[in-house]
Design a protein that fits this description.
2 domains, AB_hydrolase_Est10, carboxylic ester hydrolase activity, 8 strands, 17% strand, alpha/beta, Rossmann fold
Length: 298
């Protein structure tokens, strides 16, 4: 496993003067190389946890596979995470996409990066951001991969998350009563947020990926987990397939069987305490397939 100390620490200036912190991992034996930029998911954790905690594995796995396939890999923390400036809790998804566009512009200026061979990969909420990059900043990227990124709205995803939580706690029968109330609460919150920002949710509750996926303009992979408790396959995969049918660029949908939201082996409704926290073979397979597709077919 390659360590953070073997990567190049980078500081990337945003258009408003803020700085995002990252690490660039480079394949050996090449003067210049294609690049994959990873977009992190929700929350304020740093990607550096993958090198500090054994049960964090997602970024480590991506780095290892990308380097094996001859791609450089850039990991970068969002605003307020790790050593990055700013506060992600005051950003919409569009703001995060704009930040990543600034990151891409910076990387395109490097002589060791092939400017026309930069792709983006995002997991979970990062998948939503990748979808925005593929539809709004298509001139900056060659291809995109959304891993367990929802195909519907934030309100729908949060409602499904609540349903899963109730089921896993043994309250399946209560769900049919609680969920309509919860969805009504979120809808009211969204309405109020158009006038007053009352916290992080005020910046993201109005987002719906339906308005984005159907306008994707770069070759795109959408990957879903078969036993995802946060982004249910049965709701998102058919919708994603229908939305992608409207785009005019190469696209693929991949389903990884027997894995959870983090692409670890899991049955449906199993908690992290009940499974082994390590990457499934499906995660490595997905990354290999995407890098080879990007290199050979896109």
């Amino acid at each position: 496993m390659i360590g953070l100390e073997q990567a190049e620490a980078v500081e990337l200036k945003m258009s408003d003067g803020m700085t995002l912190s990252g690490h660039l991992f480079k394949p050996e034996g090449l003067a210049s190389y294609p690049l994959i930029v990873f977009v992190t998911g929700s929350g304020g954790s740093t990607y550096e946890l993958d090198w500090q905690e054994e049960n964090f594995y997602f970024c480590r796995t991506l780095v290892d596979i990308c380097l094996e396939e001859g791609f450089a890999m850039l990991l970068v923390d969002k605003r307020g995470a790790g050593r990055s400036d700013g506060n992600w809790k005051k950003q919409s998804f569009y703001d995060r996409a704009d930040d990543m566009a600034d990151v891409l512009k910076s990387m395109r200026q490097r002589t060791d990066i092939l400017a026309n061979q930069i792709s983006v990969v995002g997991h979970s909420q990062g998948g939503w951001i990748v979808q925005l990059l593929a539809s709004h900043h298509q001139d900056l990227i060659k291809s995109s991969l959304s891993i367990a990124g929802p195909a519907y709205s934030v309100i729908e995803q949060m409602t499904d998350n609540m349903e899963t939580d109730l089921i896993m706690r043994g309250y399946r029968r209560l769900a049919k009563w609680i969920l309509p109330l919860y969805k009504s609460y979120l809808t009211s919150y969204k309405t109020i947020s158009k006038v007053w920002k009352l916290g992080y949710l005020s910046y993201i509750l109005d987002y719906d990926a339906r308005d984005t996926i159907s306008h994707i303009k770069v070759p795109t992979y959408l990957a879903f987990a078969g036993n995802d408790n946060l982004v249910p396959l049965e709701k998102n995969e058919p919708l994603a397939r229908e939305l992608l049918s409207r785009v005019k660029v190469p696209h693929k949908i991949m389903i990884a069987p027997g894995v959870n939201h983090g692409f670890a082996k899991s049955e449906k409704y199993q908690s992290w305490d009940e499974i082994e926290s390590k990457p499934s073979p499906e995660l490595a397979k997905l990354i290999r397939n995407f890098t080879r597709w990007t290199r050979e077919e896109v």
